[in-house]
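Lab notes, practical 5.
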Amino acid sequence: IFKDTHPAIVDEETWNVVQRLRETKRVKERIGGEPNPLTGVLYCADCGQKMYHKQGSTGRPNHPHHEYVCSSYRHYSRSCTCHYIRVSVVESLVLEAIRRISGYVRENEAEFIERVREKSSLQQEAAVKESRKKLSKAKRRREEIGGLIKKLYETYATGKIPENHFSELLTGYDTEQKTLDGEIERLQAEIDRYNTDSVRADKFIELVKRHTEFTEFSASLLNEFVEKIIVHEATKVNGVREQEVEIYLNFIGKFDLLEQEEQPEETPVRKSKKKRRHEMTEEQRAALRERDKVRYARKVAAKKAAEEAQRAAILKGTAYEIRPQEAGAAHAAI
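Output from the prediction step:
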């Protein structure tokens, strides 16, 4: 079989969209039956896992509150932070991003083509470099877990740990191993796409021209335009909540957008805080976001150190409880 020697039944972009949808596991909702179209598109900026769709109560019958949180935070013992974001906010961001870039394309087609051609190569190179780094780290951890499981079986066979501790540790290792397998597969697919595909401005222009208007968010619009969405943890600047959301569009990649999610009521105090926030420089905002990221990283590292210490203690037959604060202090001392 030789590529591009026979007429295609469907065009390449449609094929790629369908393959991406097939790779995404969609689970029916407990209420309503149909899965949310954003499932499989949203990713946590810190741990890289897909976001988990959940419904909360608004206090009104038949009006559930739809939101996404990090799946690691939701399922795996809070190994990451929440990264909470409302579905309505994401839908508004996606629609606004598509409107803005499409309007720019229609009015500045030649300039758009030139800018994309200049930036796409550098952007993809940086992205694939990061993917390769994450892939290498995931593979190393995968091998490490394999060794830990082998050691666990040996320890259990000699009767050094009870069966309940053995089962608990084995379940934890198996869960992490499956998560890593999924991450390795996803990262390898990203690298393979970089090696075989190129981002072309003319393809995106064709996509824009097929649409006359963008009045409302829909699953078909999402699938045609959006490759993935990266959600960062929210931060507070002078009491005002800010959350960075990165939208990666098909063919042209990242579209930067910083969304501020406002509260419904604007009191004089809130207006004053909002004014101070707007007076801050981008460097000051970035410093605040970096400060919060460092705090989250320390919290996660302390928790992980505590879990590893407890596992090691169980394997040695001297199980004891370690508080995350103590583990973090020990980690810092090393």
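Observations recorded by the TA: The two ends are 57 Å apart (CA to CA). The chain has ten helices and eight strands.
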